[in-house]
Design a protein that fits this description.
Blueprint: H1 8-20, H2 26-45, H3 55-65, H4 70-84, H5 91-109, H6 115-118, E1 138-147, E2 150-155, E3 164-167, E4 169-170, E5 175-176, E6 189-198, E7 201-209, E8 215-216, H7 217-222, H8 233-239, H9 246-262, H10 270-280, H11 282-287, H12 293-314, H13 319-327, E9 338-340, E10 343-346, E11 351-354, E12 357-359, E13 364-369, H14 374-377, H15 391-408, E14 416-421, H16 426-429, E15 430-433, H17 437-460, H18 471-474, H19 482-496, H20 504-526, H21 538-541, H22 544-550, E16 553-563, E17 571-577, E18 594-599, E19 614-621, E20 625-634, E21 646-650, H23 655-668, H24 672-678, H25 701-709, E22 713-717, H26 724-737, H27 746-752, E23 762-767, H28 770-783, E24 788-789, H29 805-808, H30 815-824, E25 827-831, H31 832-837, H32 841-844, E26 847-852, H33 864-867, E27 872-877, H34 924-934, E28 941-943, E29 946-947, H35 952-961, E30 969-970, H36 974-977, H37 990-997, E31 1000-1004, H38 1019-1036, E32 1046-1050, H39 1053-1066, E33 1076-1078, H40 1079-1082, E34 1087-1093, H41 1102-1105, E35 1109-1112, E36 1115-1118, H42 1119-1125, E37 1128-1136, H43 1138-1141, ...
Parallel strand pairs: 3-7, 8-11, 13-14, 22-27, 22-28, 23-25, 23-26, 24-25, 26-27, 29-30, 31-37, 32-33, 32-34, 34-37
Antiparallel strand pairs: 1-2, 1-6, 2-3, 4-5, 6-7, 9-12, 10-11, 12-13, 14-15, 16-17, 16-21, 17-20, 18-19, 18-21, 19-20, 35-36
Helix pairs in contact: 1-2, 1-5, 2-3, 2-4, 2-5, 3-4, 4-5, 9-10, 9-12, 15-17, 17-20, 20-23, 25-26, 26-28, 27-30, 38-39
Length: 1169
């Protein structure tokens, strides 16, 4: 909504300050330079509609676009590298870097360098240095252009040459990268690996395209099929429904059995593995089609028997076993160094993955496969590899081998690699595998091609690739044998045929949403602009100081406890001590977050690329210790070294992208009636003959009745404090349940077996966040409604863990009893992402009704497939509060209004505007609300107007500005009827008088900018907030409750630390327990008093503060401000820089409103903070 850009003058002033303040610490000075460069790049590239990822590519692009001289460009890139470092710069280097930075600012903004800055910097570039050596092992570069057998590149190192040539073909050394001609793009980033350099020519043995885009190793391997490996197979596999077969269940068991056997000390009990595996995968077992328990047990016994022999061979426990191992010609490996399911990220190769088994000394690497290998069964050697292994498994193992080589700089003969086919006895199934360089290079080539295809589709649109999704195109090997035509081709057609039978509207919808999802995936991996987005590549591109500033890393942790969460689980609960992380450190982690735990060497910076990573979730977070629950527990406690420091960083996952794509494909495969409904091509139906089974509430009965009468969908708008979960959702569930019968107990089902009944109807309750699901569970428990929850115990409130399926069925030892228990439970609860990852539930239960809370925070691709699987759905939300987080720009996620159908055969996307789909970043809830308005229907929309949170004097402003349509009214609750605040102690000054008299207060802050302090910190406002907290605490006295009385909202996490420091100085323990958080994390919460610090001191920061706004009926709806104000029950206190805030229309109106009501504090002669 706003265009408050940072100016060149402000950036020049920053450079002047870092030159004029000699007392600055080197790290602070480097960070100031880095932040200034980020701000300059952000302004330069923000309207280019391109994703650049790191600063290297942004600087390169802007230097070309602005015509910056080559020598100055080199100096600017050198300055960028220095700004990433923590190493101190010499006075001379600092001046040369400042010169490079001001020249860059001058060029980006098209203005002259100010005279007062010109006199502080050198007039000539840094003297040219000859003899600089470049790192031949790995060179990061950007493509400028290419011609013949050479690519012209700029490298990301200090080097002699201004420009280098990458040789694509060298027949003498058997090097051929000419396949890259078809996928190279100007500005593309490359990793050149194992290079020969004869300046200016670089001849790499391996080239990796867009290396920050990590591809899962197993995803690459799966694409090596009997009919070839087309780059689009990667996307095709993402569209496939999640497999849940007896074979996948057996594979899961075999992996668990290997874990248990390795450290069972010769006392392995298979039945314990079966029980644990059965409990953890209860839903999968119950929903597996044609599951044969007897065959499963027989196959599992064989797997376990073979695995025990394999483990005794690799890790002999006795002398006789060691002798047998020697007779096989097998090396001996240390069982104490065996590690299970470790993860790796390899930026060098652009891949990531999780290994089944290896040793920490990297001497052994094993990939396990539980399925059939026809080469073994037929005693048929693969003619290409002269051995029995299957190609996709060979590819997978070679890529893991490559990761170890590049991450740990290992020689070719250091690692012994094995493929383990555990269905077969060790003499057949444990295969010694050689490093096959040709296949390894082919796998990296394929990885490059699929990444290039993903980037191309994200840029040009999925519609350009749509016609490529056919068996004929994907079958690049031209395979036509019996197995292909009988089994493989039908599997491909099951995915591709629905893509080619869509109506023009369906085709436009699917293609546009696929493009949107793929763009989000690229940004989530490589970033759009460094410093303005979060991405998985932050793990290695973000400087340590910036990670600390963002709270994205814990360092110098030491293990104090290693525990097993349950018998047989391995050591999966790791407690670490947390030393002081720095004066301004504030962790950006929450309980339930997925993380990487890893060690690093003393006196070195932590680096995920140089470590064995343990994946896990945060179980507990305290100021002095942190508890991580590992995804894969280690049976050997000695694996976790006690004398090395550990780090914790955010984990990465492609689950969200995969879930969105499967959802979209599930939607286009849904019945036409359902597709027409969701795309506005069919009028939703209503049965007015239905009546409520009982009276619920005088105000809500009409809404509950209309929701019941709606046969397809109902939309419930629930503004803040209107009781959408505690009352409306509760009554809707009760009414739906009243149509059926009660739920049997686990005991009755266990006793009755198959005779247990199938209830009349089942209800699916979902929400976007686990916190909101916890609130739904709380409502169900309080109402006495039985339910089961899908999810992880570590993202679930402890009170509701007994309702998790694996906990609830612990008393049901038999498969049929568990199945009937799940069938008999009428209410199932979970997050939308969990339901997407567990679609098997829909094969066991048919849901007549789904109710989705927080639906305004859920993007269409994350929901639309789930809704296709239920008879009717009710969406509850408030699109005037914060929506889902989208990283691509509003332009990139928008829907074109101009018909482009005549340009190159592109699909006409503008028809999506006709169904009120104007931007992919909007929720389905918002689109359907607008669609119902467009169709002038009101019977399928309900609005909750009675709010029981805000006092009328607080509610007046959001009512006037944001809820004109809804016209909110007080319930009224007792506190809404109070004419005065209950502050009875005598006033200390006129500010206390103001607090007693007014419920909406604004306290102007003053400018307090300091050159070495982040723009995300406002010391003056922190002081004001702390003073307000002291006063509130004094007024409340014994009534003060840290969880209910007062909360603080700020726009930046950095400001939280500043406020916390001030609170510590007060010495009031109760205040140290209050919640201080960003507005995004306060959504869904409430307090008696809310204190909101606007924090900003620059006009350009207004875009961030008010960026989540839209226009409705001619009025601006500022979602962030709306959420902030509507958290307050009794009083809303705000502090901000009035001079800056006046540049925003809504903020200006807010200050005028508070001033009009008398709550604007102006008595600065009495109180100055």
């Amino acid at each position: 909504m706003n265009q408050n850009n940072i100016s060149a003058a402000e950036l020049f002033q920053r450079v002047r300050e870092l030159l004029m303040l000699p007392e600055l610490e080197p790290q602070t000075r480097n960070k100031m330079m880095h932040d200034t460069l980020i701000l300059c790049c952000h302004e330069g590239v923000k309207d280019t509609k391109q994703a650049f990822g790191n600063l290297f590519s942004q600087v390169d692009y802007l230097c070309k676009a602005r015509g910056i001289k080559v020598a100055d460009k080199i100096a600017i890139q050198t300055m960028r590298r220095h700004s990433n470092s923590q190493e101190p710069l010499s006075g001379e280097d600092l001046k040369y870097d400042a010169r490079a930075l001001v020249l860059f600012i001058s060029a980006v903004f098209g203005v002259d360098v100010p005279h007062e800055l010109n006199v502080l910097i050198p007039h000539t570039p840094r003297p040219y240095q000859k003899g600089l050596e470049i790192n031949n092992r790995r060179i990061r570069c950007i493509v400028k252009n290419w011609d013949g057998d050479f690519i012209r590149v700029d490298i990301d190192q200090d080097a002699d040459e201004e420009e280098y040539l990458v040789q694509l073909k060298d027949e003498e050394n058997h090097i051929d990268h000419t396949y890259l001609w078809d996928i190279l793009k100007e500005g593309m980033q490359l990793n050149l690996l194992d290079c020969q350099v004869k300046q200016p020519i670089i001849t790499p043995r391996l080239i990796v395209v867009e290396p920050d885009y990590l591809v899962d190793i197993s995803s690459i391997a799966t694409c090596f099929t009997a009919f070839g490996h087309h780059p689009l197979l990667y996307l095709l596999n993402l569209m496939k429904p999640r497999a849940n077969t007896q074979a996948t269940l057996l594979g899961n068991f075999a992996g668990a059995a290997l874990d248990d056997i390795i450290n069972s000390h010769g006392k392995y009990q298979m039945n314990e593995t079966v029980k644990t595996n059965f409990r953890e995968k209860a839903l999968e077992f119950c929903t597996c089609p044609w599951f044969d328990p007897k065959k499963f047990y027989t196959d599992a016994s064989l797997q376990a028997f073979n695995l025990q022999q394999v483990v005794d061979i690799l890790f002999p426990r006795t002398a006789s076993q060691a002798q047998m191992t020697a007779l096989r010609g097998e090396s001996l490996y240390d069982r104490k160094k065996a590690i299970l399911e470790p993860s790796f990220v390899c930026e060098a190769l652009g891949i990531q993955g999780r290994v089944d088994l290896m040793t920490t000394d990297c001497k052994l690497l094993v990939e396990q496969k539980s399925g059939r290998n026809m080469n073994i069964e037929n005693h048929q050697v693969d003619p290409g590899y002269h051995s029995y292994q299957l190609e996709p498994h060979y590819v997978q193992l070679l890529l893991y081998y490559g990761v170890l080589q590049h991450n740990f700089k290992l020689s070719n003969d250091r690692v012994n690699i094995r493929l383990l086919y555990s269905k077969y006895r060790p003499q057949d199934g444990l295969m010694v595998v050689a490093y096959y360089q040709k296949l390894f290079k082919e796998a990296i080539q394929y990885r490059n091609q699929l990444v290039a295809a993903s980037f191309e589709i994200a840029k040009e649109g999925f519609e350009h690739a749509l016609n490529e999704f056919t068996p004929e195109v994907l079958n690049v090997a031209g395979t036509q044998d019996f197995f292909y035509n009988k089994y493989l081709k039908p599997q491909i057609e099951a995915i591709t045929k629905p893509l080619h039978t869509l109506s023009p509207l369906e085709e436009a919808y699917f293609c546009r949403m696929m493009t949107f999802v793929l763009r989000e995936q690229i940004i989530s991996k490589v970033g759009a602009q460094e410093g303005t987005n979060t991405s998985s590549s932050d793990l290695w591109t973000m400087p340590l100081t910036e990670k600390k500033d963002a709270g994205n890393i814990y360092t110098d942790l030491h293990i104090i406890r290693k525990e097993q969460s349950c018998a047989g689980s391995g050591y999966d609960t790791i407690t670490l001590s947390v030393p002081d992380q720095g004066k301004d450190f504030l962790p950006n982690f929450r309980i339930g977050d997925m993380v990487y735990l890893y060690t690093y060497k003393l006196k070195e910076e932590p680096d995920v690329r140089k470590a064995i990573l343990y994946k896990g979730v945060l179980q507990e977070i305290h100021s002095d210790e942190i508890v991580v629950h590992l995804t894969d527990g280690q049976q050997n406690a000695d694996i976790f070294e006690m004398n090395l420091p550990y780090a914790i960083e955010h984990g990465t996952s492609d689950a969200s992208t995969g879930g969105s794509i499967r959802n979209l494909h599930q939607f286009i495969c849904a019945p036409k009636d359902k597709r027409d409904l969701l795309l506005g091509q069919r009028v939703p139906e209503r049965d007015t003959s239905q009546e409520l089974t009982r009276h619920y509430d005088d105000v809500l009965d009409d809404i509950i009745l209309r929701a019941k009468q709606a046969q397809d969908y109902f939309l419930l708008v629930g503004p803040p404090g209107t009781g959408k979960t505690s009352r409306a959702l509760k009554f809707m569930v009760e009414e739906a349940l009243n149509d059926g019968t009660g739920m049997p107990t686990a005991e009755s089902i266990a006793a009755g077996g198959k005779s247990a009944f199938q209830p009349a109807s089942s209800i699916l309750l979902m929400s976007y966040t686990n916190r909101a699901v916890d609130e739904i569970c709380e409502m169900l428990v309080d109402s006495g409604i039985p339910f089961l929850r899908l999810g992880s115990e570590y993202s679930c409130d402890e009170r509701f863990r007994p309702y998790l399926i694996e906990k609830a069925i612990s008393d049901c030892p038999k498969l049929e009893a568990i199945k009937q228990y799940i069938i008999g439970t009428r209410v199932i609860v979970g997050t939308t992402s969990m339901m997407t990852s567990k679609p098997f539930i829909f094969t066991l239960k048919h849901f007549k009704l789904a109710i989705i809370d927080e639906s305004s925070q859920i993007l269409e691709p994350n929901l639309i497939g789930l809704l296709s699987a239920v008879d009717k759905f009710i969406l509850i939300g408030d699109y005037k509060q914060l929506p889902a987080v989208v990283q691509q720009s509003e332009k990139d996620s928008g829907i074109p209004t101009i018909n482009d159908s005549q340009k190159g055969g592109v699909i006409d996307m503008s028809i999506l505007q006709d169904i009120c789909l104007t931007n992919c970043r909007n929720s389905l809830f918002e689109r359907l609300i607008r669609w119902e308005d467009h169709e002038e229907r009101t019977e399928f929309i309900g609005i909750l107007r009675r709010q029981g949170r805000m006092h009328p004097e607080i509610a007046e402003f959001p009512n006037r500005m944001f809820y004109r349509r809804e016209k909110l009214e007080p319930v009224p609750c007792p506190h809404q009827l109070e004419s005065e605040l209950s502050y009875t102690l005598p006033s200390e000054d006129s500010l206390d008088d103001l607090l007693k008299e007014h419920r909406m207060i604004f306290l102007p802050s003053r400018f307090c900018k300091e050159p070495n302090v982040s723009d995300k910190i406002n010391a003056n406002e922190a002081e004001i907030v702390v003073d307000m907290l002291r006063r509130i605490h004094r007024f409340y006295g014994d009534r003060f409750d840290a969880q209910k009385t007062v909360g603080v909202i700020v726009p930046y996490r950095n400001q939280i630390a500043m406020v916390r420091k001030g609170i510590e100085k007060l010495g009031i323990p109760e205040l140290e327990k209050i919640s201080i958080d960003t507005v995004e994390r306060y959504q869904g919460s409430q307090r008696d008093v809310i204190i909101y610090s606007f924090t900003i001191q620059n006009i350009w920061q207004l875009d961030f503060l008010a960026g989540n706004s839209f226009v409705e009926d001619g009025a601006i709806i500022d979602r962030k401000l709306n959420v902030a104000i509507t958290r307050a029950r009794k009083q809303m206190i705000m502090t901000g820089n009035a001079e800056i805030l006046r540049n925003n229309q809504i903020f200006s109106q807010l200050m005028d409103y508070v001033k009009e009501k008398g709550g604007y504090f102006q008595n600065f002669t009495e109180k100055v903070w």
